[in-house]
Design goal:
With 584 residues, the protein is of the alpha/beta class. It is built from 23 helices and 19 strands. It has 2 domains: 317 residues, 3-Layer(aba) Sandwich (Rossmann fold); 252 residues, 3-Layer(aba) Sandwich (Rossmann fold). α4 packs across α23, α6 packs across α7 and α20 crosses α22. The longest helix is centred in the first third of the chain and has 20 residues. The two termini are 39 Å apart.
Amino acid sequence: MESYYDRINRQQNTQDIEDVAEFYQAIDRGHLTKKLSPERPYVYFTMEVYDKTNGIKGGGGLGVLAADTRRVAETLEIPFVCVTPFYRHEYHQGIYGLDQTESIWGVNPEEHGFEYLDDVEIYTEGMPPARLNVFQKIFSSTRFLTIGEANFGELYAGDGNGDHRLYQEVSLGFGGYAALKMVGLRPAVIQLNETATIFAAVARLDELVHNGMNLYEAIVYVRKHTLYTNHTLVQAAESEFSYDQFSRIVMPNIKSKALKTWLSGLFRDGRLKLSTLTIELAEAKNGVSRLHARVADYQDVNGDKVKFRAVTNGIDLDTWVIPEIVSVYNEKGIIDKFGLPSDDYKERLDDLKIDEIRGLRKIGREKLNQVLEHRQDQYGNPVYIPEDATVFDFKRRFVSYKRPLMPFEDISILRRILEENNAHYILTGKVHQGDTEMRTRLNQVLKLIDSDDLLRERVHYIQDYDEELGFALAAGSDIAINNPIVGLEACGTSFMKDIANLKVLISTADGGVADLSPIACLEIVGASYEAEVRSLYEQMLRAARIVKNDTWYEGQVRRQLSGYLPVISGARMMKDYLQLVFGK
């Protein structure tokens, strides 16, 4: 029977091959054609993927990023495998009586086109082996390779330092690595997204030592071929486990006695942070924005501060930007055939005129209303936004550092902004399970909105935030609010989707926004929270004036794109990763 890669190699025409080689040459790494191949792909381990089209529903930005990275690799014909759990249960949010509720839906990978391959076993002391189902789904040069079983649990189930969480992480690492061997793949590089995926590198290390390589030679080899991508700012936030937990849940999956001894030596006071282990086994380490790489505070096993390189996250333009805008970028030569900004993209942005911008924004508004027709606000009703209304939005996971409720600090000012500018405010984002503080605050704000006639008419909280709603708001609202506490957002990509869809961005200088200094959007500033609130309201008023004035609006759109288009590009992100792990 003809294998998948034989079929791909047979079908891929000469132009495709030349395009891939040209991309490698474009990033000054022509030797990548020898480093990466269908049999030795780029392997990307992640605890979550958020790809609703393919039935995998993660919990937030990390999952969205994982899905975008695979899509970009597919577009660029890069041999790429995303290894991830397929959770059989997923959370959905509802609002009843102005309070958040959660429901759990069952999910079956085969219903979404995944092919069952076989099972792999994971071992726990004193327990029967856990049989993990391996599924795959192939897209051109890329694939999903997933593991899981009926009792695997949902994403982020239980205590972050508990037995079940460690079982999930061990299952992904050892089970995912076994799945790679099952389909005959040997990673050219393993990218570990967060420390929860470290057991993939441990599994590779165990295989090398078990096959006869000296432990320390094997560690050097694994380090050379492993990239640790950190999305969390402080080491204290990382999981840590006891020696007893490792003895029961990790060690039974390791064959090498030498490796077990080495791992045991990493424990301090009977506990081991996964970040410590990850830092030991990954030579290349990166944060996901320039600011993040500077401020991430991690130490190695000796207590020395770890240096991180910066590879800012990017997005897949074809997924998150309306096709009509992508076509304009391509036709005007603003974006090249790889999805990278052209050498003279800033000059070419001068061809983007206000009439064209407004026409594209009108298409985006239509797409937003099409989605809102079948979504529900806090009262369970669909929402329609008039074409002539100005729309502000906040669309992010509801956690305290993102400060989703800042615009409600002074209701009288918010009412005036909305009323005087014929404006609506769309708010969406889920409170994480167990976050009682944010759930209480959301409940309070929804009741506050309900108590005011104007706010009840113009402020819409849309339930069950997901990819569809995120895209619709990126495409169809006018002004995006991004106001995390400076220094706490690793990157964020929602702002990229807004800028690429020709919206006005209001933001603090945090995460990927801070890749430019000064930032190229309307900045929220202030030495105190109260001052930042005043600044936010000032920028909301300013943004509302900008979108109504042709000259100002055209200038603001060009300014934002001129500064951030290289940051936004998912192809740029992939280029940066390839240069980092396969540098000269």
